Amino acid sequence: MQPVVDAIGEARPNVDVFAELEARLGLDRPAEPRDELEMMLEVINGLPEGVGDNVRAGAPAVPPFGTAPIQFVDVFPRTSDGKVHLFPEELDRQAPLGLYTYQPDPATATYPLALISPSNEKAISSSLYELVRQPAALTIHPSDAHEREIAEGDTVRVFNERGSVTCHAAVSPIVRPGTVALPKGLWGRHTLNGSTANALAPDTLSDIGAGACFNDARVQVEWVARAADNPAAAADSDEREAAERVH
């Protein structure tokens, strides 16, 4: 349970922060855990039979199927017949176009680029990104950068009808043409206008499982200013290149 640093610099567990958010928004429920201890107890109570007892007693938490399970020998899928279902009818009914059906790319002529927001080597969430001081950069393929007259370290604006993010550009073939990447977990101070990839993500849900569709964001990128006009941006670019050489 990673801590979150609040507005006055005090580190608080995530569960405390989200419990307070739920309370302020009127979304809290009586049975939900409200602090770190209650959350830990709920997790322990939800462990398989016998495992929770071991944890409470300070003993090793050995799963019911052993520490080196073999699939389909010691442990099986939780289906009615214990087999893998490659085409479950229930999931097929959930998908509007059916399971394993191609769906067109949501890109348009106005917003032709796919924005992805993966983790990077610095952090996997905003809980750790507070330690990162270097400004964020939008990674763009050289062909897409050339088309927009964007060079390494330039200031760019990535935008769609939902919002925009102003940051520096990192021109690299590490992403495919037609795709741009901005790390997830950024704080407002990591971009030049205080926005992050969250401002560009759609609020739709996936057709199966009602998951987030943040990788369905389609955007456009435009040049704003040259890196030569911003010494800090040029320094950041040099630092990124040095890091890539080390890796």
Task: Give a description of the structure.
By secondary structure, this protein is α+β, with helices and mostly antiparallel strands. The chain has a six-stranded mixed barrel. A two-stranded antiparallel sheet has the order 1-2. The protein folds into two domains: 74 residues, no CATH class; 134 residues, Barwin-like endoglucanases (Beta Barrel). A hairpin with a 4-residue loop joins strand 5 and strand 6. It is built from seven helices and eight strands, in the order ββααααβαβαββββα.
CATH architecture of the largest domain: Beta Barrel
Structural class: alpha+beta
**Spatial ordering of strands, largest sheet:** 3-7-4-6-5-8
Strand content: 15-25%
The helicity comes to: 10-25%
* Span of the ends, CA to CA: 29 Å
CATH class value of the largest domain: Mainly Beta
Number of strands: 8
Element order: H for helix, E for strand: EEHHHHEHEHEEEEH
How would you state the average pLDDT, rounded?
A: 85
Shape: globular
Report the uncertain regions. Answer: 5-9, 241-247
The CATH topology name of the largest domain reads: Barwin-like endoglucanases
Radius of gyration: 23 Å
Largest sheet: 6 strands, mixed, barrel
Counting structural domains, the number is 2
Q: How many helices?
A: 7
Topology (elements, then pairings):
Elements: E1 3-5, E2 11-13, H1 14-25, H2 36-45, H3 51-56, H4 89-94, E3 113-116, H5 126-129, E4 137-140, H6 142-147, E5 155-159, E6 164-171, E7 179-181, E8 218-225, H7 231-246
Parallel strand pairs: 3-7, 4-6
Antiparallel strand pairs: 1-2, 3-8, 4-7, 5-6, 5-8
